Amino acid sequence: MRAHENQADLQAGEKNPARRATPLGATADRMLALQHQAGNAAVSQVVQRRSDPEQHQHGAGCGHGGYEDSSPEGQVELLNAAKSTPGSPLSGSLRNEAESFYQTKFPTARIHDNPTVHRATAAMGAEAMTIGTDIFLGAGASGRKDLIGHELDHVKNNQEGKTETGVDNGAGQAVTNPNQDSEVTAGINGNAFGAGAKVAPSIAQRAAKDRPDDEA
């Protein structure tokens, strides 16, 4: 799982920057279940304005078996539920802009934005998550162009088969350090996309580096 925490989390514990509100005592079975749900696809989470998810009150029609949303069991069920919701392809204007910005195609990118997904992202302590080419937006995130741009950077990497290492978050999910190169790059590119830049900074820098000296 790829994730980036806010600076407060890093300052609080540099050795464990990917902490979540998930119990650390997850059993091996629970951890394996979570890993199975995520599969081999990288998961990106944005936790820029992190706070502990609101405690869920269980009852009739709850949708899962009496578990707290942020517990390993709750995360498994909510992640499963979010993945089963229908996603929408990028809108024409957004797709055109994103494909020009990243100089790649996003034919299978899907955005999931509904109450089930909002609850799942909250349970994971995230504003947004990306699994493969599916972007899951938290409540109120649909208006964040910088956030969508950040997630599309991860979609691009996933499409290209790029993988990242992560650290177990205590619930069987591997999350990345927000200071590692890929997350820093996604943040820079996302901010540029939100600000209306025409080309991703990482791509512009690569093009400049590859340009012959006599053309520079």
Short précis:
Helices cover 41% and strands 11% of the residues. By secondary structure, the chain is of the alpha/beta class.
Structure description:
With 216 residues, the protein is an alpha/beta fold. It has one domain (2-215). It has eight helices and eight strands. The chain has helices at residues 7-12, 28-38, 72-84, 92-102, 115-123, 145-159, 181-194, 201-210, and strands at 2-4, 43-46, 88-89, 110-112, 128-131, 134-137, 167-168, 174-175. A six-stranded mixed β-sheet has the order 1-2-5-6-4-3, sandwiched between helices. α2 (28-38) runs parallel beside α3 and α3 runs antiparallel to α5. The protein is globular and about 65 Å long. The chain starts with a strand and ends in a 6-residue tail after the last helix. Mean pLDDT is 74; it is low at 1-28, 38-42 and 48-61.
Count of separate DSSP helical elements: 8
Overall pLDDT metric:
74
Low-confidence stretches: 1-28, 38-42, 48-61
Q: Note the beta-strand portion.
A: 5-15%
Please report the total strand number as a whole number: 8
What profile does the largest beta sheet have? 6 strands, mixed
State the order of secondary-structure elements, H for helix, E for strand.
EHHEHEHEHEEHEEHH
Query: How many angstroms separate the termini?
Result: 39 Å
Q: Strand order within the widest sheet?
A: 1-2-5-6-4-3
Rg, Å, rounded:
18 Å
Instruction: Return the structural class.
Output: alpha/beta
Which terms summarize this structure?
single chain, six-stranded mixed beta sheet, 216 residues, 8 helices, 11% strand, two-stranded antiparallel sheet, alpha/beta
